[in-house]
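Write out the 3D structure for:
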Amino acid sequence: MFETSKTSYVQFPEPGIIVLKGSDDLFFDKHVYNFYRYVLQEWNPSKKYIALYMGCSNHKPFSQSFVHMKVIRMLEKHGLDNFVQQFIVSEPLTICPRELEETFPAANYDFPPNRLGEKGKKEFISRLQTFLHKRAMHMYRFHVGFMPNHHKEIFSQASEGLLEPQFVPYNVYQLPRLLALLKTLKNRGR
């Protein structure tokens, strides 16, 4: 991504180069906030009817993590990638569509979940609730969570009264269960 003018340009770091580090303060970083606002207001999603929400990882881009790789390959192998929109639930980004995982700042931050304080948690839940209300509940028929308990708790609080997500325990050994659920939802969506 470049911002150009006749005299200068800004080049964003390549994916995996960490330039934003911190804790709750990152929710209020201008790049992070602009990313969230873009996803909320301008991002143009594909016409899929199943939303799969996964937790973030310390690997950037997220698809470099073992579990994310396994899920991506499983979706492709079983022909589900045309029906399932993948999202990463993340502090501080809040929500990241898979298609944007290699963009700045999604691929360039470090925010360990143990650094999430009360201020950040409140902001995380509020922003996620706004996304679910304004976008997700209108775009997807089915909502599936496959995330660590930390993210599941955040997602459950944000989705309360809006969605009825189905959760699959976050464990590589639960991938067959996730696959079975996604296949069932695919067939129900036809």
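The first strand starts at residue 2 and ends at 4.
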